[in-house]
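Below is how a single chain appears once it has passed through the pipeline. First comes the sequence as given, then the structure the pipeline wrote out for it. We keep one example in the README because the format questions we get most often are answered faster by looking than by reading.
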Amino acid sequence: MFRIFRQRARFDRELRDAQRAGQALLQMHTEMPWPEAAGSAAATAQDATEAAVEPDFLPPDFRAPSRQDIAGFMMRWDQPLVIDGEVRECPQCGAYRTWVVLCMRDDSVWLRCRAGHTTKELGLDAAWYNRHSGPADHWHPTLEEGLRHLGH
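Resulting structure:
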């Protein structure tokens, strides 16, 4: 029976010791001086040397080109393209499906039919293209290679 009382007393003593150690740790942190501000000259010089030594996150081979580096984006559009309630068709050949939609760097949208006729579409913009396209999965150095990849 006394063993239970001794275990309880030992548990209480260990708990009080842990609480005292925690209080001492908190007291130590309140008395420590603050680190130098980020705008100070010493911190700025240290950040500059770290930035110079630290390499880029990705090697150049793994980086995707930025929007300014490429001429535009393209995607397939196999179903009929309906804009403002009208089905768009090619003005030269009358094709109304199996388009390649091109979104150029200047945010203009062009349609290319299966026969190779290209027409600027004024009813579409880059926002429409971004809503309907998925993520870019391939990068092609020329328009012809991109069209070949899309099956045109």
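DSSP finds four helices and six strands in the chain.

See the next section for the split statistics.
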